[in-house]
Write a structure and sequence with these properties.
Strand 10 and strand 11 form a beta hairpin. An 11-stranded mixed beta sheet has the order 3-7-8-14-11-10-9-22-25-21-20. Strands 16-15-17-18-19 form a 5-stranded mixed beta sheet, sandwiched between helices. The chain is α+β, with helices and mostly antiparallel strands. The protein is globular, with a radius of gyration of 25 Å. It is built from 12 helices and 25 strands.
Length: 470
């Protein structure tokens, strides 16, 4: 059992699980810049693979832009520089020489990409332009750092698109939401989509849709966002196209980004006091095989276990044979911490019966699979595990959502939903008095809502969600 319990102290439990499962090493001598260990990197790479599949299937092209951005380009969009000025890292020297123009380590890539977009886009035939990259970004996180959730070097996915019209750009936001649904399904993660308030939207955006999931302590974790820019960036960066009437127009732009917080959310949503519980689609190993042998049958059992591992691997299942010289109980413990979805055991009696024993990590359920149909049986169980994890996470999120009608007695450990008139003064009053953040209005907008602003009592056209955040 873990030294710490998830329900009693989520923050410390989380850090303990990350360390004991070997997902990340925080001992690198720069705070907030952690080392990805092999197990953690395998999980993140599997998440990246699903992101790439979705972007490639929707005609996005992968690119890789330089890490550093000239200050001259970074400052072209005034709201953008204002939003990031306290978070960026500056490069001021090359060797002993002071640079004529300071360089920024990218906090995000709008200002790196858009000078190039101005060269790439010339005609309406060049549109839509849809690119993405998976890179590291750097932000000076001033709060307490926490692996995957709050770090200063961030593994980051970002897509950037250019469109002829605002309507086309809006269609891209809707396509992003569809891709998100499929990606989150692989991670078994429920989430809220909320249009952020004006004071909390991405610097330079026309509007921002935040992607939030609920952690077991009732706080929300933002795992990504989608931004509609209109022409807020294309005008300062002079990204224009010639339309069918030979008139030059500014493009309308969007971005969509998610980070390694996806892995942090998976850990928080699914794991327990024993360790990780990894969704099968992203688990570095979907199955671990434990040979159970005695001195007189060790060679036979070990060979059967190797054949089983080869059989599963040949069917595209990520299988790991644990043939270490250690007791089975010790192996169970090690892989339980690492959250491998399914444990298979094979011993002398199993070989005689032509079966393989299994144990599910999520429920602890045990049983047997016929050896001749082990691949089919394993896939069936992995699918059941995925469905169970999503159902359980969705139920947990719904249990933490509560409607409130008064500022008195706002509950702890809940995401609250209430009417808001949209007035900034009322929004700030709620946040300041409740020590909570307004996440925003539902995306897409909720139809037929009727209610009163929780602060001033005026009619509210839409409800909002609010929560304490990680």
């Amino acid at each position: 059992m873990s030294r710490l319990e998830k329900d009693d102290n989520f923050g410390d439990w989380y850090l303990d699980i990350v360390e004991r499962a070997g997902l990340s090493d925080k001992r690198y001598p720069i705070k907030g810049m952690n080392v990805w260990t092999p197990y953690g990197w395998k999980a993140m790479s599997n998440i990246d693979r699903f992101i790439r599949q979705e972007l490639d299937a929707t005609q996005h092209d992968e690119v890789c832009f330089p890490l550093m951005i000239p200050e001259t380009e970074f400052k072209k969009e005034k709201d953008h520089i204002k939003g990031f000025d306290s978070e960026v890292y500056w490069v001021t020297h090359a060797g002993l020489n002071e640079l004529d123009v300071r360089l920024v380590l990218r906090p995000t890539s709008e200002t790196a990409m858009y000078p190039m977009f101005a060269l790439w886009v010339r005609s309406h035939q060049d549109l839509p332009l849809k690119v993405y990259q998976i890179v590291n970004v750097f932000r000076y996180e001033t709060k307490q750092t926490r692996a995957f959730m709050r770090v200063r070097e961030i593994h980051f996915f970002e897509s950037h698109t250019c469109h002829a019209t605002e309507e086309d750009a809006q269609g891209q936001i809707d396509e992003d939401a569809e891709m998100l649904s499929r990606i989150a399904g692989k991670l078994c993660l429920p989430y809220f989509l909320s249009v952020r308030t004006e004071w909390d939207k991405f610097p330079g955006a026309h509007y921002t849709v935040g992607i939030d999931t609920v952690m077991p302590n009732g706080k929300t974790l933002q795992i990504g966002s989608m931004h509609h820019y209109r022409t807020n960036f294309s005008e300062p960066y002079e990204i224009t196209y010639e339309d069918e009437n030979s008139e030059h127009r500014h493009v309308h732009q969007t971005t969509y980004g998610m980070s390694e917080r996806l892995l942090g959310a998976v850990i928080g949503a699914h794991s327990d006091d024993k360790g990780l519980i990894m969704p099968p689609d992203i688990a570095p190993f979907q199955v671990v095989i434990i040979p159970i042998f005695s001195k007189d049958n060790s060679a036979v059992v070990l060979e059967a276990a190797r054949l089983l591992a080869a059989d599963l691997s040949g069917q595209g299942i990520r299988a790991k044979l644990d043939d270490r010289d250690a007791r089975p109980g010790s192996k169970y413990y090690d892989w339980e911490i690492r959250g491998v979805p399914l444990r298979l055991e094979i011993g002398g009696r199993d070989i005689e019966k032509n079966v393989v024993a299994f144990a599910r990590r999520d429920t602890g359920e045990k049983g047997q699979i016929e050896r001749g149909s082990v691949g089919e049986g394993v896939r069936l169980i992995l699918g059941m595990i995925s469905s169970s994890l999503m159902e359980r996470a969705r139920a947990s999120q719904e249990s933490k959502l509560q409607d409130v009608a008064s500022l008195d007695g706002i509950p702890e450990g809940r995401v609250v939903r209430f009417g808001w008139c949209g007035c900034e003064e009322c929004g700030h009053r709620f946040e300041d008095t409740q020590d909570m953040k307004i996440l925003g209005t539902p995306y897409p907008a909720e139809k037929g809502y009727s209610g009163k602003c929780i602060v001033c009592g005026k009619e509210a056209a839409q409800p909002v969600l609010a929560a304490r955040t990680m």
